[in-house]
Amino acid sequence: MIRASVPTVTSAKFVKGVVGDDEALDDGKAHIALIGRSNVGKSSVINSLVKQKNLAKTSSFPGRTKEVNLFLINKSFYLVDLPGYGYAKTDEGGRDKLKKIIFWYLFNSHYRQKLVLLIIDAEIGLTANDKEILRGLEEHQKNILIVANKVDKIKNAVYLKKMREIQKMVGDHKVIPYSAEKKIGVTELTEELFKK
Fold it and tell me: Which of 25, 98, 114, 128 has its CA at a distance of 20 to 30 angstroms from the CA of residue 108?
């Protein structure tokens, strides 16, 4: 039996950051959006998928991404990196501004996403903010995939229990255990990105 070759990322480049309607978002290429709370590792997930260390700028300072960042993958679709939510140390005005950008792109704009990756911290599980975003995505009938990042931080003894808890909280949505650092789940998530 001939096994179909696993799709791979052969090219990836940062296009631009936007905070409103932009022609780049309207060029007919598919959008795969990444959403998650601040410091959950969205940039690290992008870098591990494209096998580049610094394509998406990582920072130990939460809340670094303040616009919708577009990364063109294989010249055929965009990874759309949204600002993180729920960062407590920014002022309320700053938090509201980021939330507005997220809600505009996902829920109020005419842009359609082929897939939305909700990235959560596997060790912490779903926070109240994660649950709010998940509800919004479900209400707007988005195609949702849960990426449980940082699984390498979970002790082996409680790993299965943690994964079961996360699955129970997200219902029927597929959960991919992931570690950007240890490259766990990269192949499985890459396959999801290239699904028709």
Answer: 128
Residue among 26, 22, 31, 78 at smallest CA distance from 50? 78
Q: For residue 9, give every residue at least 6 positions away whose Cβ sits within 8 Å of its Cβ, in sequence order, or none.
A: 49, 50, 51, 73, 74, 190
Q: Which two tokens stand for residue 111?
A: 């842009």
What pLDDT score does 182 carry?
94
What is the full DSSP assignment across 25-55?
Answer: GGSS-EEEEEEEBTTS-HHHHHHHHHT-SSS
HSE of 118 in the Cβ direction (CA atoms, 13 Å)? 24
| Burial tier of 185 (Cβ tally within 10 Å: 0-12, 13-18, 19+) | buried
Question: What is the DSSP track for 115-128?
Answer: EEEEEEETTT---H
pTM of the predicted structure, to 2 decimals:
0.91
Classified as helix, coil or strand, 109 is coil
pLDDT digits (tens, 9 = 90+) for 50-98: 988 888 876 544 445 578 999 999 999 999 999 988 765 556 666 778 8
Read off φ and ψ for residue 48, nearest 5 degrees: -70, -35
Per residue in 86-130, pLDDT tens?
A: 765 556 666 778 888 999 999 999 999 999 999 999 999 999 999
Please choose, from the candidates 33, 37, 63, 189, the residue with its C-alpha nearest in 3D space to the C-alpha of residue 125.
37
